[in-house]
Amino acid sequence: KYYKGRLLSYAPSTEIDTLTPQNLLEIAYKLKHFDAVSVRERPFREKLEDITHKPIAECIDPTLLAGYKIFDRISSAELGNEKYILIYSYSGLDPFVKKLIHGIPNYKDYAIKVLSLGPVGIKEYFRKGVVDYDCSVEEFVGYFKNASYVITNSFHGLAFSVLFHKNFYVTFVENKYIRCLSLLKKIGLESRMLYTDTSYDWSDIDYKLVDDRLNEFRDKSLNFLLDNLK
Q1: How far apart are CA 75 and CA 113, in angstroms?
Q2: Domain at 75-208, CATH class
């Protein structure tokens, strides 16, 4: 070994469908040097166990491991008292987002705020709203903390929606949905993954049940770290 101490993998993530057989062989070879390995998604874990023939743990994303209190302390409170629907997208807006917005009770009472890594291109969404392409970390967290509803196609959009107990939907993006779906299954909210515009329900989410499941998974992840850092 060319390093000192123990070498661990904590909750790396990938869209398993995008990995080639060669990618998997390279990963398996490199993992031979690790003392303990964890990943974020079950499909990734199962695939790695098949090719490494060693146990792989499932651990929670570091954002969710850190928890609500840490992000609550750093969130910006400079967004005012305006009620708004937050859309967070890294790849443009899904065609049925407008219909999804119109399903929110009294949706006309809400402004729309959009966070995006690139042009979103649909001007009619921005009535009484803004598009922010370059917010700070504190502002980013604040957008989620203060939102009334969230629509996202991003894993971390989902993670912050859950941390701040928001009513949300995750919209499907081909080859980029497994991360979100894996977390939704763990916390019992598979119905919040929206594949088409045919069915959605903006009823409140039972976050007591979600938190109970999340805390159980968080404890297992902490135990992985504590057990392997001794």
Answers
A1: 16
A2: alpha beta
Spell out the domain ranges in the chain.
Answer: 8-64+214-228, 75-208
Q: Is the CB of residue 208 less than 8 Å from the CB of residue 187?
A: no
Q: 10 Å Cβ neighbour count for 118?
A: 10
Spell out a b/e string for 61-85, using b for 16 or more CB atoms within 10 Å of the CB, else e: bebbbeeeeebeeebbeeeeeeebb
CA distance 154 to 158: 6
Q: How far apart are CA 73 and CA 191, in angstroms?
A: 30
**pLDDT tens, position by position, 184-226:** 999 999 999 988 766 678 999 999 999 999 999 999 999 999 9
The answer to whether the pTM exceeds 0.90 is no
Q: Which residue, 6, 91, 93, is CA-closest to 101?
A: 93
Q: Report the C-alpha gap between 200 and 192 in whole angstroms.
A: 8
Q: How far is CA 67 from CA 16, 88, 163, in A?
A: 26, 20, 7
pLDDT digits (tens, 9 = 90+) for 32-83: 889 999 999 988 899 889 988 889 999 999 999 999 999 999 998 666 678 9
